[in-house]
Design a protein that fits this description.
The protein is built from 7 helices and no strands. It is mainly α. Helix 1 packs parallel to helix 5 (about 120-135), helix 3 (about 75-80) packs across helix 4 and helix 6 runs antiparallel to helix 7 (about 160-179). It is globular and about 55 Å long. It starts with 13 loop residues before the first helix and ends with a helix. About 30% of the residues are buried.
Length: about 180
Amino acid sequence: MKNFSMLNYPKLTPAFIIGFIVLLAIGLGNLDGSSAKITDPFHQGEYFASFASMFNHQASQNYLTIHGALDYIPAWLSFKIYGPTHYFFGTIFLYALTDILSAILFYILVTIFTDRFTSNYQAIVLIVAAIVSPMLVTYRDLLLLASLLLYFACQMELRPIARSFVEIGLGVTVALRLR
């Protein structure tokens, strides 16, 4: 992998900008309110089961989470914002936002990996990635994608203090994925 500077990535080429606009249009179009409907009770139950178990039991108990901290952090944040009786829709909304953030991180990774392509091929790949990324990645992939980006950032030549922050960020995202 060649050395790269995060200041140069993602490169703001016309293809990147058009793809990013397409990605945001598709991602934000998914926030039309239909995401607040229960369409998959099993998987959407994961949004609340871990947090409810943690909230209603002693802190010393061990809890099984399937997707790490992302199984309870959005519910916890929504609970803190909206209170114990109104956090349901806030939690669903936060998961929809993490879906969009996952798609953006995936898109940035595709941009990095296609940097060696000729501009015509890169433009095609970026547009296709922008269209399909909201369908390929979800909140479950957020910490993995963030870990990959931070790993690549660790490969850069950084000042010692910046390297420390990037390495700590990488450790935290990996740890949150495991909890």
